[in-house]
Amino acid sequence: MLATLFYEPSTRTRLSFETGMIRLGGNAVGFAGTGQSSVSKGESIADTVRTVAAYADVIAIRHPKEGAALVAARAAERAGVPVINAGDGGHMHPTQTLADLATIRQRCGRLTDLTVGLCGDLMFGRTVHSLIETLCRWGNIHFVLVSPPELRVPQYVLDRIDKASGCSYEQVRDLAGVIGSLDVLYMTRVQKERFFSEDEYVRLRDTYVLDRARLAAARPDMAVLHPLPRVNEIATDVDADPRAAYFDQVANGMLVRMALMAAVLDDPLPGYGDEKRQTPAGEQ
């Protein structure tokens, strides 16, 4: 039994977790929005999680505050229920990164020796922070960080790149000047929900828009990724381009979350466990 505790709105992440658990043969319960739970009455994260841990075998939590997943994991530890971070504020989104890695490997055939451009809201974009952190573990990545000065990558993320083997970065404002050098372009939306000022959001939201004209300068094998949802930072005329990989990310997101849930529950995926499998003659 999976419990999805989503304190923030979600389409892909929540539904892929729930659909994935059902496809694994399990079930899913939970809430999508604080108004549907005792959170609306002031209940703490820890108390909610301790309660839900009595009903579920694994919990996926999304919360607007950084560090909420860690609080939840500690609360569920006594019950022995694993907690999966489905996004905590502007900090990290590790399961989206699994989908990103699967898609990059599909398109590029590798996860090293790449030039990866990340464009848009790099300050509050938790998917960006998670992806950089994880690609640094593979090494030999050159990150091209494209953003206005107000939305640059936090220093702690840059420090991680500096410490990684063979990794480097450059910070630029102009996407057009670097798009031709990229293996991967990771577009992000400017996140309205992270801004304190509506005027500041409106001023920055249209800074980067990728359309077919701008994409013409890119290499024919470059992959365009986006964690979605998009607002207007990728024009719909890009969707038909073979370089568009963001809906591949959606499909891969469900598959990697299925694998993750199976792993934390120590319940091997059908056909991938330790049991002997029947194989055609001559197949290894």
UniProtKB/TrEMBL annotation:
NCBIfam families, per database record: asp_carb_tr (TIGR00670), PRK00856.1 (NF002032)
Q: Which family does it belong to?
A: Belongs to the aspartate/ornithine carbamoyltransferase superfamily. ATCase family.
Q: What catalytic activity is recorded? A: carbamoyl phosphate + L-aspartate = N-carbamoyl-L-aspartate + phosphate + H(+)
Enzyme Commission number(s) of this protein: 2.1.3.2
Instruction: Supply the name of the protein.
Output: Aspartate carbamoyltransferase
Q: Where is the Aspartate/ornithine carbamoyltransferase carbamoyl-P binding domain?
A: 2-106
The record's InterPro entries line, in alphabetical order, gives: Asp/Orn_carbamoyltranf_P-bd, Asp/Orn_carbamoylTrfase, Asp/Orn_carbamoylTrfase_sf, Asp_carbamoyltransf, Asp_carbamoyltransf_Asp/Orn-bd
Q: What does this protein do?
A: Catalyzes the condensation of carbamoyl phosphate and aspartate to form carbamoyl aspartate and inorganic phosphate, the committed step in the de novo pyrimidine nucleotide biosynthesis pathway.
Q: Which residues form the Aspartate/ornithine carbamoyltransferase Asp/Orn-binding domain?
A: 113-263
For this protein, the record's PROSITE patterns field holds: CARBAMOYLTRANSFERASE (PS00097)
Q: A GO molecular-function term, please?
A: aspartate carbamoyltransferase activity
Pathway the protein acts in: Pyrimidine metabolism; UMP biosynthesis via de novo pathway; (S)-dihydroorotate from bicarbonate: step 2/3
What is this enzyme's class at the first EC digit? transferase
Please list the GO biological process terms of this entry. Answer: 'de novo' pyrimidine nucleobase biosynthetic process; 'de novo' UMP biosynthetic process; amino acid metabolic process
What is the species listed in this Swiss-Prot or TrEMBL entry? Answer: Bifidobacterium magnum
User: Which keywords belong to this entry?
Assistant: Pyrimidine biosynthesis, Transferase
